[in-house]
C-alpha cells in the first residue's frame, strides 16, 4: 500500500511540474579538462658541471629535457621564458598531467601555475606595521645589511598615490614646468 501511495504522489508531482512548465535542475559542476594547458613556473636543479661556463643554449637544452616536446599541437612553443639568475628553471605551457609526469624526472624540484600578482601598496612599512620607534624594525637595525628586491611596475597616473586630495590648486602662473 505504501508503494502505491508513493507512486501516486510522485505521479501527481510530475503532472504538476509538466503542466506548470517547471523543470527540475541540478547545479552544474565545473568542467575541467585534463589536457588544458596553463603556464607553469618550473624550478629545477642546476645542470651538472660548472654552471658559469654554460651558455644560454646549454641551459635551454637542459630545460627542454623536462618537457614532453618543444611545441604544442598548435605549433606554439611550450617554453615561455628561461630563468638563470635568481633561480634555475623555466616557464612553460603544460597540462596538469604533464607536470605530474615531470615530477619523476631527476633534477625537478617543483612547479606552480603562473598567476599575476598586483602590488598592494606604495607604503610597505605602514602596511607591515613597522614604525621607527616601537617595533621589530628598530630592534633589527632597520634592515641594515638586508638585500631587498624591488618590483618596478612602472607608473600608473591614476594610481591613488598620485591623487591630491586636500592640496590647493596650482598657482595661476604655473604652466606645468
Architecture overview:
With 177 residues, the protein is α+β, with helices and mostly antiparallel strands. Among the domains are: 38-113, Alpha-Beta Plaits; 121-148, no CATH class. The chain is 24% helix and 14% strand. It contains five helices and four strands. The chain has helices at residues 2-19, 56-64, 96-102, 124-127, 136-139; strands at 38-44, 79-83, 89-94, 108-113. The protein has a four-stranded antiparallel sheet with strand order 2-3-1-4. A hairpin with a 5-residue loop joins strand 2 (79-83) and strand 3. The longest helix has 18 residues, at 2-19. The chain is extended, with a radius of gyration of 30 Å. Residues 20-32 have low confidence and may be disordered.
Offer a quick outline of the entry:
By secondary structure, the protein is α+β, with helices and mostly antiparallel strands. It has helices at 2-19, 56-64, 96-102, 124-127, 136-139; strands at residues 38-44, 79-83, 89-94, 108-113.
What is the straight-line distance between the termini?
Answer: 94 Å
User: How many strand elements?
Assistant: 4
Give the rounded overall mean pLDDT: 77
The name of the CATH topology of the domain at 38-113 is Alpha-Beta Plaits
Q: What is the CATH architecture descriptor of the domain at 38-113?
A: 2-Layer Sandwich
Strand content: 5-15%
Spatial order of the strands forming the largest sheet: 2-3-1-4
Low-confidence stretches: 20-32
| Structure annotation, total helices | 5
Using the alpha-carbon principal axes, give the shape. Answer: extended
CATH class of the domain at 38-113: Alpha Beta
Structural class: alpha+beta
Give helix % range: 10-25%
Largest sheet, if any? 4 strands, antiparallel
- The radius of gyration computed from the alpha-carbon positions, rounded to a whole number of angstroms, is 30 Å
H-E string: HEHEEHEHH
Signal peptide: 1-25
Protein name: Inhibitor I9 domain-containing protein
Keywords: Hydrolase, Signal
Family: Belongs to the peptidase S8 family.
Amino acid at each position: 500500500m505504501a508503494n502505491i501511495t508513493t507512486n501516486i504522489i510522485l505521479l501527481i508531482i510530475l503532472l504538476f511540474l509538466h503542466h506548470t512548465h517547471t523543470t527540475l535542475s541540478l547545479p552544474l559542476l565545473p568542467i575541467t579538462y585534463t589536457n588544458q594547458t596553463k603556464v607553469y613556473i618550473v624550478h629545477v636543479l642546476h645542470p651538472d658541471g660548472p654552471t658559469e661556463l654554460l651558455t644560454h643554449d646549454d641551459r635551454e637544452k637542459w630545460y627542454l629535457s623536462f618537457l614532453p616536446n618543444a611545441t604544442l599541437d598548435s605549433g606554439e612553443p611550450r617554453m615561455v621564458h628561461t630563468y638563470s639568475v635568481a633561480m634555475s628553471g623555466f616557464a612553460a605551457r603544460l597540462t596538469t598531467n604533464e607536470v605530474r609526469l615531470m615530477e619523476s624526472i631527476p633534477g625537478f624540484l617543483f612547479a606552480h601555475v603562473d598567476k599575476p600578482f598586483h602590488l598592494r601598496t606604495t607604503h610597505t612599512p605602514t602596511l607591515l606595521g613597522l614604525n621607527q620607534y616601537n617595533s621589530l624594525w628598530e630592534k633589527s637595525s632597520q634592515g641594515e645589511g638586508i638585500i631587498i628586491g624591488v618590483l618596478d611596475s612602472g607608473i600608473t597616473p591614476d594610481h591613488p598615490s598620485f591623487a591630491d586630495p586636500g592640496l590647493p590648486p596650482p598657482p595661476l602662473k604655473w604652466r606645468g614646468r
